[in-house]
Amino acid sequence: MAGFDKLRRYLRMPSRSARRITRDVEEELQLQIDLRAESLEREGLWPSEARAEARRRFGDLDDARRYCAAVDRDAERSRRASDWLGELRQDASHTLRMLRRTPAFAAATVLTLALGTGASTAVYGVLHAYLIRPMPYPNAERLVSVLDAPTFDRFPGAPLRERGRLGADRGRRRRAEAAVDDRVV
Fold it and tell me: Does 168 reside within a domain?
């Protein structure tokens, strides 16, 4: 029986396209008009008169065409949704049946899914906090970069009175180096 269900699933007709629905509606409306015309011919009208009278009695053909196409599209959409939900139910029941047969594999699968979900949630939380959420500053969209102000203290361990002398020595050394560079050129 299961083999027959699989075969039937593979051989079933695919869903109809909008073009196919339009063509089916046109064929059905033409058939209805032809049947009415034949009935009128049997009542004694000439074929051309019977066809014209059948169209007149049928009413607004464009309105009927739109209505039938809309009903057909809705029915096709409902059929597709029903087929999809049925297949989803079958897949879920098959998956649960297989997981019940192998509890160790089921535990490993659930653990893997839990770890993957937790890791992706953590990564998203970090990315959201640092990249996506706006910075808590006024006009944050105009902020280009935030840097620490550089310190110009070249002698952080020296006492203050020594810093001035060391800085002066450095200035004399630079002037002397510049003088040597001028002579070399």
Answer: no
Handedness of CA 94, 100, 106, 110 (dihedral sign): positive
pLDDT tens string 108-125: 989 999 999 999 999 999
Taking the C-alpha atoms of residue 56 and residue 45, their distance in angstroms, rounded to an integer, is 14
Structural domains in the chain (count): 1
Q: What is the pLDDT of residues 141-177, one digit of tens each?
A: 776 665 665 555 555 655 555 545 545 555 555 555 5
What is the identity of the amino acid at 28?
Answer: E
Residue 62's domain spans which residues? 10-101
Radius of gyration of the chain, Cα coordinates, nearest whole angstrom: 42
Provide the Cα torsion 67, 73, 76, 82; round to 10°: -100
Under a CB-based contact definition with an 8 Å cutoff, are residues 34 and 55 in contact?
no
